[in-house]
Amino acid sequence: MDKREQTGRSGELQGLLSELSQELSGCSSCSVVHLEEGAAIATISAAAFDASTAEAYAAELLRRHQRLRRKLGTVDEAEELVLQCSNLCIVSRPFEGSEYFWMMLGTASSNVTLIRALMRKYHARLEALLP
Fold it and tell me: Residue 8: in which H helix or E strand, if any?
């Protein structure tokens, strides 16, 4: 894939994340993240929110889950990881067989079930745009 195609796909990822984030009231951040680097290749976030810290945190959680899964000898991949705190919720969903995952972060008032349903709805479309 040449540089122009990568730039086009990045713009499409941004557009799709923007569309998705508007479907969720209380969406603080929505990102596609490189698992090992913990850095986003596309992000939509609220102006006052530090998305990069949340992205690195979610990447670390997924990496730890993978290491634990290997130590336990289980073969199942995590379909998604959900972390719900008093003031926020993070849902991370790996792209199977890829070095990327994506995540949504919502406020405490966000509906985790709705986040998960939206992620299932958009998963294949985002996956098709990965580098």
Answer: helix 3-21
Q: What is the pLDDT of residues 70-95, one digit of tens each?
A: 888 887 777 899 999 888 899 999 99
CA separation for the pair 29, 109 (Å, rounded):
14
> Which residue shows structure tokens 């899964």?
69
Collapsing DSSP to helix, strand or coil, 4 comes out as helix
Pairwise CA distance, residues 19 & 74, whole Å:
36
How many angstroms separate the CA atoms of 93 and 122, rounded?
11
Helical pair 3-21 and 112-127, crossing angle rounded to 10 deg: 160
DSSP 12-31: HHHHHHHHHHTTSTTEEEEE
Beta bridge partners of 32: 42, 102
- How much of the chain, in percent, has pLDDT values that exceed 70? 93
What are the start-end ranges of the E strands in the chain? 27-34, 40-45, 81-84, 88-94, 100-107
